[in-house]
Amino acid sequence: MRKQYVVAALAVIFSLFVLTADCISGELEAFGGQKGTLKISGGTAHIPVMKEAAQRIMSAFPDIQISIAAGGSGVGIKQVGEGLVNIGNTGRKPTDDEIARYQLKVHQWALDGVGVVVNPKNRVKALTKAQVMDIFAGRIDNWKSVGGENRKINLYTRDEASGTREVFWEKALDKGTISPSANVVVSNGAMKSAVAQDSYGIGYVSVGHIDSTVAPVALDGVIPTIKTVKEGKYKIARGLYSNTKGEPTGLTRAFINYLYSREGRKIVEKGGFIPFP
Amino acid sequence: MNNWKERGIEKIFLLSTIISSSITLLILGFMAYMALPLLRGGLFRLLTEPWMPQQGFYGIYPMIVGTSVISLLSLLIAFPVSLGCSFLISSIGPKSLSAVFRRIVQMMTGIPTVIYGFVGIFLLVPLIREFFQGGSGMCILTAALMLGVLISPTMILFFCDSFDRVPRSYIDAADSLGANRLQTLLYVILPSAREGIVIGVLLAFGRAMGDTLVSLMIAGNSIAEPKSILDSVRTLTAHIALVIAADYESPEFRSIFACGLVLYLFITIVILAVRRLAFRKSEERA
Question: How far is A179 from chain B (nearest CA, A)?
């Protein structure tokens, strides 16, 4: 009698193994028999997703090596165009000129919001779009004018090659000016640590990067969160793209398909983005 | 046969010398060529205009100001400190202490600049921000302070070496005339080590000007022309690092070659000055 229990228990455990193994191979089976290196570079916003996907693939198939480098959207396009990497990620749709010059094939797999952030100590937690435009243009330069402390506003912006900057500049600032005296930081992470350090700072990051170290600012009453971006209420949003030179093949093809798979979409969600389409 | 072989080897050495020295010139030529489309728009415009890519201005004037101000200020901060340190190490301090300090300074030269940048972000930037109550703390002063720390080991070691090279007989003569240690230092050691000090300063200046990471991380990188030392500023090197990701064909990208050109010329002038001083010194000896 007892023996039967043990056998039954073992059978359950075994079938669980089989089931989970089935699950993994179900999503990852395209990688079976593949080997070699896949090089990815570009947008910093993509990195958490790329890393997670790469880790899962590499632990299931040790013959596959995937390397991921940051550098921004500009670097992504440049490197994939020149054949230095297999996939170049961008936080903006490549321009028609870029697509034509490098024969790029564009794959969009997520939506991403760009939210204004301040230090958690800051009293200001809501701004209108007009106020944000005035602040970033330098026309409003004291927190007092928008209901905060009597201290100078410290502006943080991103470098010109940044996709996050482009989305923010186009959609939040309506292509208005960004004050030349704004500090320039080089990544979403650097932006977060700059604003987290500076009680009187204001900047902008991908919604997926917002955590407890910085406080999101509601824009025209809408707080930038994954939910509001997904519902389309929060308008400062962009697509996340992976670009290949020409139609992808082999490992590159399998990787991009994986991003669109059920498991891939889960990873995208976990990274703070909204899976697309 | 032997003679022929020797001459052949001579030729090979000559060739390698020519290659390695011409690379420097080729780089200069390459940068000038790449910057040409911008240079054609007028060198004067390039050097005096602001940087506003969206309005079509690709001038690098704010960055030239940034680089000059930060490196000069860091030199101003680091020079007295380094001079004092090297006095202590080479003559005033007790032997055992000097040895320890010398080791520490030698170790400091090996610290990667990114670490200085990191320390700057987390310690110096908040300090400056709260102390002056204005601005973000990422400014000329912060970067100059951190760069001062970065370049002082170079100066200290150079100063120490030149102090050590002062002939023993000079110091003995001063001693026998009844000079105390401070007097010896001021009237004997310092004047005879003058050239070494100048060369050390110029080398440190070159290092401050060429450093990228410290200014990229803590100077703020704003593109405005600075009005005070508490303003955020972008250096030429940081500008290159920030713009290098831009589109290859864009004028933004071209402008980094102009930056490279200006830096190259700055550094060349510094090196020529060093050479001249070092040369004059050896001539005097002869």
Answer: 8
> What gap in Å lies between CA B130 and CA B233, rounded to an integer?
19
Nearest chain A residue (CA) to B51: A180
pTM for the whole structure = 0.72
User: Cα–Cα distance between A159 and A165 in angstroms, integer?
Assistant: 7
* ipTM for the complex shown: 0.74
Residue A83 exposed, middle or buried by CB count within 10 Å (0-12, 13-18, 19+): exposed
pLDDT of res. B82: 93
Give the mean model confidence (pLDDT) for residues B173-185: 85
Q: Which of B129, B241, B243 minimises the CB distance to A198?
A: B129
- Shared domain check, B261 and B129: yes
Chain A residues within 8 A of B52 when measuring between CB atoms: 180
Distance, in angstroms, between A180 CA and closest chain B CA?
5
Specify whether B49 is located in the same domain as B18.
no
Which residue in the set B50, B136, B248 is minimally distant from A198, CB to CB? B136
* Stretch A70-75: mean pLDDT: 78
Range of the domain at B18: 2-34
Q: What integer is the mean pLDDT of A124-131?
A: 89
B96 and B147 co-located in one domain: yes
The reply to whether residue A200 touches residue B221, judged by beta carbons under 8 angstroms, is no
pLDDT band at B251, cuts 50/70/90?
confident
- Please tell me if residue B231 touches chain A, with a CB cutoff of 8 Å: yes
Cβ B246–A185 below 8 Å, yes or no? no
Q: Looking at domain A113-237, does it have CATH number 3.40.190.10?
A: yes
- Given a cut of 90, whether residue A202 has pLDDT beyond it is yes
**If we measure between CA atoms, which residue out of A160, A132, A147 comes closest to residue A235?**
A132
CATH (domain of B161): 1.10.3720.10
Domain boundaries, chain A: 29-112+239-275, 113-237
Name the 3-class secondary structure at A261: coil
Interface of B with A in 59-78 (CB under 8 A): 62
* Best residue of A119, A122, A154, A162 to probe chain B, by most B CBs closer than 10 Å: A154
CA dist A52 and A58 (Å) reads 10
How many structural domains does chain B have? 2
Residues B18 and B149 in one domain: no
Same domain, B80 and B144: yes
Contact A185 B221 (CB under 8 A): yes
Q: Which of A78, A183, A200 lies closest to B138 in CB terms? A: A183
| pLDDT value at residue A22 | 44
**Count of CB pairs separated by less than 8 Å, A with B:** 75
How is residue A78 written in tokens?
Answer: 């440049």
Residues B19 and B57 in one domain: no
Residue B90 sits in the same domain as residue B133: yes
pLDDT above 60 (res A161) = yes
DSSP assignment of A133-162: HHHHHTS--BGGGGTS-SSB-EEEEE-TT-
What's phi and psi for A91, nearest 5 deg? Answer: -95, 15
**Confidence check: pLDDT of B81 > 90:** yes
The CATH architecture annotation of domain A29-112+239-275 reads 3-Layer(aba) Sandwich (3.40)
B24 and B60 in a single domain? The answer is no
